[in-house]
Structures are given as structure tokens and as C-alpha cells.
Amino acid sequence: MKYEISRHGLRGEITVPGDKSISHRSIMFGALANGTTEISNFLRGADCMTTISCFTNMGVHTDVTPDRIYVHGNGLKGLKAPSGILDCGNSGTTTRLISGILAWQDFSCSMVGDASLKKRPMKRIMKPLSMMGADITSALGNDCLPLRIHGKQLHGIHYMSPVASAQVKSAILLAGLRADGPTSVTEPYLSRNHTELMLRTFGAEVTSEGTTATIYPAEELYGQKILVPGDISSAAFFLAGALIVPGSEIVLKNIGINPTRDGMLTVCREMGGNITYENICTEGEPSADIVVKASELHGITIQGDIIPKLIDELPVIAVMACYAKGTTIIKDAAELKVKESNRIRIMVENLKRMGADVEETDDGMIIRGGRPLHGAVINSADDHRVAMSFSVASLNCEGETTITHKNCVTISYPRFYIDMKDLVHTGQDFGRVY
Ligand code: S3P
Questions:
Q1: Fewest CB within 10 angstroms: 14, 269, 329, 395, which?
Q2: Mean per-residue pLDDT, 386-409
Q3: Over the stretch 91-148, which tens digit does the pLDDT of each residue have?
Q4: What is the distance between the alpha carbons of residues 185 and 132, in angstroms, rounded to a whole number?
């Protein structure tokens, strides 16, 4: 990868694809609702297409048109036994959320996934779902995929989750939709609340108090019109790129700024980033245009309750930290080890290849910024967020960078390299060639 950057840095306006978490949920809840759900700005990345194919396999009809997805819901009692095994591909969100739905169906089925997904821990959902009466087993006995689920009548529980995970919380809430009483989940820190917000829109009774969410059994859900905001986790790559490349100024259009997801923006500001909002919209999921200008960054400590609000952005934050003055410490982020790859190890290994002064810790990393980076061969570990993070790292360093399996970005952002090239080439006057 060799970006030719305009003397003016990254320039222009960009609309990133729809939010991945919200897109998944719009299909799932639409499938369980009565009537049709119309989804605009749906993310057509591989993960969300996997969710569509799982529900197609369970008898739900969707129309995929150029600008909308229509989900013709089967109602809460209308899913059909799939003809074969449900293939969840690379998607942890699909696997964990669907498990909560499959737990109360009147059929049995199995779920598989790709090599990365097969390594990811499922005990975190198997345990609470089993406490609710679910019959869910791991075929190999290792608490990973393949999973086998026999639908059962479930019981409401109050679960104290050891992890702040929206996937775990959502699996339990979705199981609670048809349990025999209220179901609640308390998390150590609040994770993203898209499930709570969207289930309420679809007509379910869901309450939130502090880090506890409670759902009451529902008789019916109702199809909705959903406008998916731009994904802050995708916008994060351009935010970081614009902050670190001198002379940059970009506008990210219509980005979701839900307060349970906005940790990246907080961190950029705390590091000295010049970031402002325009056109704030507070209807439904809040969104805004985000204006970003290149800034002198400095290191900070990132820990505690902000971690779930920026968990997917930590790889690119690590890149930003290399370009910041001073030390950045990332703590309380052991969850990074069980994402699509071990993101602590893989980021540290690759950043070192580029010449960064970075150290792996048990629950994060320590980055001493300010050392110039150089191009390198980067192992993406087939992880979309790692590949995109190093595309950003390569923007402001000498030499050429090669990213293995760089097309893994199709998981969440199929047009990523095209959009990045547009931003770096918008200026007329090319001053530096890498
Ligand atoms: C997601 C929750 C997060 C996040 C993932 C999407 C979701 O995972 O990392 O990309 O849509 O609920 P965890 O819940 O495992 O932290």
C-alpha cells in the first residue's frame, strides 16, 4: 500500500457505511416482528449479509433493493427450522444474538463459523442461557462453535455478567423476549445499548437503570422503518487518519454518536484532537456530521468504563498513540484478546514491525509515541479492523506498507480502500510521494 498524499493532507467529505451493530439488529428484530421492516443505509458488509442469510434459512423473506432492505417478518412464533446448519461466517454478533433467539424456538439447530469464529468464547452466552433453561451445547465440548441448540420454554433470570459485552447482554435480552417472566442483566460497565433502544421501538418493554437492562416477555413486535446511522467504528479510521496527517480537514457525514459508543470521540479530544459536531440529529439513534482537523496529539491513559464505548476502536487508537507525543496506556481491555484476532498481540507485533515503541500488557498496551514509523509487511490476521488500522498507520510514514489479506475489510467496510484513496487524493497539489 502506497498512498500519495496531497500537500493538504486528507481532504473532503465522506459518508461511511451504516452501523454494523444496528444493521444486524434491524434484520433480527424485523424477522421477529409482524409486518415489514424497511431499513435504509443498511451495512452490506459480509457480517450483516450473514445475518440475512441465517434468517432466510429460517424462512424469513427479505428484499434487497439498491437503497433499502425490506424484512417481511414472520412474527415471534414464525421462524422455521433451518434446512441445514446455520453458518455464522466471521460474525460474533450473529452467533451470540441469534443464540438468544434460537433458545426458545420449537425446533433444534446447529451453528458453525469460520476459523476465527470457531476460536471465540461462547461460554459467556451458554452459561446465562442455560440458567434460563436453554439446552445449548458445544459439539466439541470446548465452549466454542459448533453449537447445538434445542429450543425450550425459558425462565426469567437476573444475570450479573462478568463482562461488559453488548453481545452477551443482547443474547440474554432476546432470550427474555419469550421467557416466563422478566429477565435482567447487570454489567460491570455499560455496553452499547442498541438492542434496548431498538427493541423498544419494535414494541417490547425494556427498561434501563444504570448498568442493568430488563426485558418483559412480549406477545408481538411490530415492523418499523429504520434509518441506520454511519458506523462510528468505521469513521474512526478516517478520524485517526485526519488527525495524524498534517494539513488534513475532513467531514464525516451522519455518524452515530450514541453515548454508549462515543469513546473514540472522547479519546481523540482528550489527546488534543480538533473535533466538532455539525447537524446533530437526536431522533432515534443520535447522529451528527463530524468535522476533524489535523492536530498535535499527546498521550493519555485509557481505562475503566470508557473501554466498552470504544472497544472496536482501540486498534486504531493504538496507531494514533504512535503519532502522539508522550505515553499512551490502554488498560482494562483484555476483551481485545477474544475479538476476530487477539488484537493486543497482533497490534503490538505489527506496530513493532513499523518501528513503534510499544509493549503488550495483560489487559492492554503501553505506547511511547513520537518515534517515526516506517513501512512494513503487516500481518492482518484476517482481521478487518487490524487491516484498516495499518492502512491508517501507513498514511504518515516513510516507505511502503503491505497488508496481508487486505480484503478482509469486506467484513465491515467493503469500499474502505476506495474511500480512503478519495480522501487522500482530493487535494490538487501533491507534495509528498511515499
Ligand atoms: C457488538 C458488541 C461488541 C463489539 C462488536 C459488536 C454488538 O462486542 O466488539 O464488534 O453489535 O453487540 P462484545 O459485546 O463482545 O464486546
A1: 269
A2: 95
A3: 999 999 999 999 999 999 999 999 999 999 999 999 999 999 999 999 999 999 999 9
A4: 12
User: Ligand 1 centre from 36 Cα, in Å?
Assistant: 26
Ligand 1 mean position, distance from CA 327 (Å): 27
Which protein residues are within 6 Å of ligand 1, measured from CB?
21, 93, 165-167, 170, 191-192, 311-312, 335
Nearest ligand 1 atom to alpha carbon 338: 15
Cα–Cα distance between 5 and 102 in angstroms, integer? 49
pLDDT one-digit tens code per residue, 141-155: 999 999 999 999 999
Residues acting as catalytic residues = 312
Q: Model confidence over 50-61: pLDDT tens digits?
A: 999 999 999 999
The torsion angles phi and psi of 15, rounded to 5 degrees, stand at -110, 115
Q: Ligand 1 mean position to 93 CA, how many Å?
A: 6
DSSP string, 26-65: HHHHHHHSBSEEEEES---SHHHHHHHHHHHHTT-EEEE-
Whether the CB-CB separation of 188 and 214 falls below 8 Å is answered with no
User: Can you read off the three cell numbers belonging to residue 396?
Assistant: 504518515
Domains delineated in the chain: 11-17+229-424 (3.65.10.10), 20-227 (3.65.10.10)
| For ligand 1, atom 11: residue with the closest CA | 21
How much is the average pLDDT of 384-392? 98
Q: What sign does the CA torsion over 111, 113, 115, 119 have?
A: negative
Which three cell numbers, joined as nine digits, stand for 115? 476459523
Please state, as a whole number, how many other Cβ atoms lie within 10 Å of the Cβ of residue 207. 13
Q: Residue of the nearest CA to atom 4 in ligand 1?
A: 312
